[in-house]
Amino acid sequence: MKRQILTSAVGIITALLVGLIIMAVQGYPAFDSYYQLFNYSLFSKFSFFSTLAKTAPLILTGLSAAVAFGSNAVNLGQVGQFLIGGISVTAAGLYIDLPPVVMIPLLIFIALLSGALYSGIAAWLRLKFNMDEFITTLMLNFVAQYFTMYLISGPLLDKELFSPMTRPINKSGWLPDLGGLDSTIIISIILLIIIYFIWHHTKAGYEWKVMGSNEMFAKAGGANIDKNYLKIMLISGALAGMAGAMLVMGGVQHRFLKGIGANYGWDGVMIAVVADSSIIGTAFYSFFFAMIQTGAMGMELETSVPSEFVLILQSITVLFVVASRKSAHLLLNRINILLRMKNIKSGGGIKEDEFID
Amino acid sequence: MADPIISIKSLLKIYPPSTVAVDGVDLVINSGQIHAVIGENGAGKSTLMKVIYGLTAKTDGEIYINNKKTHFSNPQEAVNAGIGMVHQEFMLIPNYTVYENVILGTEPVGRFNILKKEQSRKKVRQLIEEYNLNLQLDSIINNISVAAQQKVEILKLLYRDVNVLILDEPTAVLTPQEIEDLFMRLKKLRDEGRTIIFISHKLDEVLDLSDIITVMRKGKKITTLENKNLSKADLARAMIGRDVVFTVKKDKASPKDVVFSVSNLKYKNEQGIKLLDNISLEVRAGEIVGVAGIEGNGQYELVRSIIGLLTPDSGEIKINDKRIDKLNILDRRKEMAYVPQDRKNTGSAQELSLVDNSIMTHHRINKNLSGARDYILSRRGARDLTDKLINKFEVISESKSQPIKSLSGGNQQRLIVGREFMLSDNFILLDNPTRGLDVGSIEFIQLEIIKKRDQGAAVLLISADLDELFGLSDRLLVIHEGKIIADKDPTKTNKEEIGAYMLGAEAGDYR
Fold first, then answer.
1. So what's the ipTM on this one?
2. Nearest to A248 by CA among A93, A112, A113
3. Which residues of chain B make contact with A199, given a CB cutoff of 8 A?
4. Span B48-64, pLDDT tens digits
5. Run of H or E residues at B84
6. Which of A75, A230, A103, A90 is nearest to A147 (CA)?
7. In this complex, which of B23, B42, B377 lies closest to A202 when CB atoms are compared?
8. pLDDT, tens only, A241-264
9. Which chain A residues touch B20 with a CB distance below 8 Å?
């Protein structure tokens, strides 16, 4: 844990420094730009709430990938599950109108269910025909993209508008606005707590963690691999589906439009990788990436650094965090060997239990 | 007469992060001798050879070959300099022929890179005849015995005309008869003036074969002795650092009712080879039944069938008269403890903590590991179980949350054996439970096995180590080509007889 925090900190600080150099080399006011980046994402109520609104779906797509990767299930279908969750909630929100107390939980249930069913297809294909979910989830992403595109430019099209999108869903399905704070973040935090609990405090979560480390050990120990795998895939899909639904139920649009939430799916995968599939790490990096994405526009406005700069910043953060995780290990080994040699040469000898088997 | 062919000065090898495998070793190998390097597992003998052979880089120190300071950065350079090594794991291409494996890498070619087949075949054939190796040029490696494969490895080196042969535990995979055969051949090579470095931890063999013996312990060279008037006890003392008991003490078994039984178990693989050929056996409460056999004769499939990782074609498996062969793995595990042969792949999750590795299977069976609801894992319960395990089985560790891979092999295995022994007193399935461990851990684990037996457990012990089988078993079965072909009282037989059975001789007197 300590080591995780250390390597993350080293990675992030190095990435920020490299970003600083990149900006300075191009003649931008680097320090001011960073100030503005944080100013527009943290330092006022509005900007902080905007960051949280962006964090909410990222936590869910990130968790979706982290739960899967951490248990050795390669779900790369967050994009598809996200879209299916979004479109299902939209369809339900267009044709059903109930009082909000019933409507909102119903839509949340539909979002979780539809995402789970969609990833469930890939899980079923693996269990029944031994098809690798690495491939099937990726391919199902395209199916979801074209299917939702068809729906919003055909059966669900808002005919009064000129680009493919649906009408807004019924107001009863809108998530409440809490004085400027998008309530989606509350849903994300609740789901985060649930997943954390499952992962660290249940027997199933224990088995998933072991499967992520060594499936054969879990199997020989009596864990039902297929059943666990199915549960993992369903939960992973449900989380991504809920993320998609948030973009319709929360925010301001309340409709499903072309290209909705374009990056959330893959950003989730990236976050899970940077966080090494840890639950808390996923929450942290979701917030971090949401923060720099939110601040980008403000930075462009104030110091005219192109907002695309944060894409570079994101990429080098991923690189440096992952690299520092690996190199910290190598570096510590190297230091250890040097100390050891010194010790031996000075006649210090070796302790008994330090021998390799 | 004896010129130093290899000499090593204060060689040091540290494996990251901080494991000292070879600790400042000085060693001189004279030409024309059989030089044995002995030591326990982890003494550093294999690492030392790998460094000489260029397989792994040294951390510090100097190596002289023929009095010239040399450093091989890969095995090819070593072979070119006349030094060859036969590894524990053979490096052969299984679906190539003997001839193809021998010439691979040094194919003699003429104009336009055309293989000079006749010439090289003749040379290989000559070598086979000269050393009486009894190999066919065109046999496929897959179809020949392990002993024959080892001969191919030696032939490969002879074909390259190496002067120094390093053999890393060559006898581990052989039967007593095959070992004799190998030793004869090695002595002939020595008499021709070649140098042989023989790595082993079996004292009888070393005394039988070698001219010079170097003893290593914990990365250090302890001593180098001429093989004259040496006794096994002398060597053992040097190897271990104290007097050792060669066999663990145990009282006579008093077997009671049949606890575990297998009847008419059959299994064919996809190629139609009978891996389990009508196997029947019984284990009674309070006895240890050993299963000897050359690896690959059905032991693996037998174990996997019992545990539920493999579905046999037919047959029954029972524990206490209850059929278990249709149950899922977890329900079987409620009835039995199982120590697998590979602790890294089946016995543990190397990246995870001691706690995570201690509670496997217990977490579904032991009520103390449940929280407020049955699906909740009690963390306190998990920690308590781990503490108990660490204390009872003397696992040396710093904290419960360190990953199991940071423990030494012996301590990892103590944790695994402990976990399983705390699971069941009923039936215990052991698949090479002490393979690759230090003597201290072997002794500890073997004593625990006997303790379990005396408490009334039925123990089925599958092992490749005849010493272990003779030391522990109350009855000794031999498996050959998927059949049980002998059922012996270990006090009334000897290694030679069992070795003959392992090779398939005198089949068919079981029941």
1. 0.85
2. A93
3. none
4. 988 988 888 888 889 99
5. strand B83-86
6. A90
7. B377
8. 999 999 999 988 899 988 887 789
9. 340, 344, 350, 354-355
